[in-house]
Fold this protein.
Amino acid sequence: MSQPETNLKKQTRRHRGPLLGMALGGIFVVGLLVWYLFSLAAEGQQPAGADVQIDGRSGEPVIEGEPTLVEPEQQ
């Protein structure tokens, strides 16, 4: 087999566009990932739209911000 024609300046010029496109695509994907992670962190661990929740131990509604009193069970 013979050696292929290698002209590095010509190859550099021809590959500049595709390499730039791949780099921009990678930057875009990383940006979307960072945005997604920040949006998940902003939501936090609280359930969405639940101001009143039922406490599983007493069955009484628990309003956010008020102290919870759980009476001991009678034996």
Observations:
- The chain has a mean pLDDT of 78.
- The beta strands are 52-54, 61-63.
